[in-house]
Amino acid sequence: KGCGCRSCNSPCPSPLQLAALERQVFDFLGYQWAPILANFLHIIIVILGLFGTIQYRPRYIVVYAIWTAVWVTWNIFIICFYLEVGGLSKDSELLTFNISRHQSWWSENGPGCVRKEASMSGIKGLDNHSYISVIGCALEYRYIEVMHSSFQILIALVGFVYACYVVSVFTEEEDSFDFIGGFDPFPLYHVNEKPTNLLFKQTYL
């Protein structure tokens, strides 16, 4: 089914929602609070853009198009963060607002990763603690996060092009409909006169 566009049968941008939800799940698992907040806003804006497409609300679609620029910028920052560009460090607590030392969920659960815990009870001050080591990862977790962000950028660019196309279609339809007086409740050619037979009845009474 189409999204509600009057002159096109283009598919609904449901992959945008699925991609955002997938990323939100893994960020929740890794307690990455900054990405969780950004993903939540992204999901809300995507729903708003979809609603605007279905309900013929170009302003909502424009809001989504503007948000895609912010979303692309955010994902570029995530890429720079994990690649440690510009003095950023993937081991910092920036993405957790410095309230925890959690890292990406993929750091311990990536493809091929084996998680081992070694007791540290013999070290003074570290009783009841354990040291966690991860070995055998087929792909380092930062590259998985970079691929996630790169995919989000690609999807956002596709969504931006789609939003611009839908807004242009809506604008053309609105202009053509207004040209024939479709939005004028009282067009110039309208004559507010009573029928002749009704006038005769009023005169007789």
From TrEMBL:
Signal peptide extent: none
Principal place of residence: membrane
UniProt keyword terms in alphabetical order: Cell membrane, Membrane, Transmembrane, Transmembrane helix
Subcellular location(s) per record: Cell membrane
Listed InterPro entries: Na/K-Atpase_Interacting
Keyword Protease: no
Ranges that cross the membrane: 33-54, 61-85, 151-170
GO cellular component: plasma membrane
Protein's name according to its UniProt entry: Sodium/potassium-transporting ATPase subunit beta-1-interacting protein
